[in-house]
Amino acid sequence: MSHLWRRHRHWLAPTLFILPGALLFGVVIILASIETIWVSFFDWDGVGPMQWVGLANYEQLFADPQFYVSLKNNVIWLAMFMLAPPLGLALALLLNQAIAGMKFLKSLFFVPLVLASVTVGVVFTWVYDPTFGLLSLIYGWFGATAPALLSDEHLVSFAVVIAALWPQVAFCLVLFLAGLNNLNEDLIGAGRVDGARGFAMLLHVVLPQLREVSFIALAVTIIGALRSFDMVAVMTSGGPFGSSTVLAYQMYEQSIFSYRFGYGAAIATVLFAVMAVFIAWYLRTLLRPEQETA
């Protein structure tokens, strides 16, 4: 047995380490996803017997005006969340400077990462309060009245996304700071010899070395925008009148409160399809330059 282990340990050791996580991922993610797709073809209240309805849940979904409101809000989340990586990179470039007091500033920007999303939602709910919140105090200094952002069906989604951007920008900041600390000093020195300064140094020397970090930041940001749920649940519960609902929250609402688990599974399946298509397109776009140069 020991001889067999020594002979094959180059692949046995990593396999044994990866196997528990792979099994957990397979059961919790893969099997659960397959089960969700299967449930979407049934009418089920979560307790009683399941009744096969075929594509009826999807027909109801695509005829539901609330579905398109939720889909529009997901697009708003995605578009605004695309600000997180460039903002995180800009802050990382600023905080990476060797200036006195910069470590203290870094700790301030790291605060959102140690706060739960529920805490962030509660804090921004107070900030947006038009009566005694921080926004009302700022408007009061100029003799104006603060708008009730969370009660305005046209502005509520933007207000919630801005709240969610705070920790997302901090997450991207940490990623880019780690990337900046691992830059190749020889390449930077060669760039300086060739006369690269400022933006030219950033564009031609620094950013190419941050390609992998940028990929992670963008991928996590996209997934976070598409699966947005907790901030909506905490700050608005989908209101007013469903105007801030996203697909993930609509799925939760239909499944838990309306006991329509088949319909909720159909929403989850559509959300999964949208996410898969977008990520596949993003990966294809990202990997195309490497394939062309190979």
Automatic annotation (TrEMBL):
The UniProt keywords, alphabetically, are: Cell membrane, Membrane, Transmembrane, Transmembrane helix, Transport
Q: Which Gene3D superfamilies match?
A: MetI-like
Q: Which GO terms describe its biological process?
A: transmembrane transport
Q: Which residues form the ABC transmembrane type-1 domain?
A: 70-284
List, alphabetically, the PROSITE patterns matched.
ABC_TM1
Q: Which InterPro entries match?
A: ABC_transporter_permease, MetI-like, MetI-like_sf
Give the bilayer topology. Multi-pass membrane protein
Location in the cell: Cell membrane
List where the protein spans the membrane: 12-34, 75-95, 107-128, 155-178, 199-225, 231-249, 261-283
Keyword Cell membrane included in the entry's annotation = yes
Q: Which Pfam families match?
A: BPD_transp_1 (PF00528)
Q: Which SUPFAM superfamilies match?
A: MetI-like
Task: Please provide, in alphabetical order, the Gene Ontology terms of the cellular component aspect for this entry.
Answer: plasma membrane
By sequence similarity, the record places it as follows: Belongs to the binding-protein-dependent transport system permease family.
What protein is this chain from?
Sugar ABC transporter permease
The species is: Pleomorphomonas carboxyditropha
Classification lineage: Bacteria, Pseudomonadati, Pseudomonadota, Alphaproteobacteria, Hyphomicrobiales
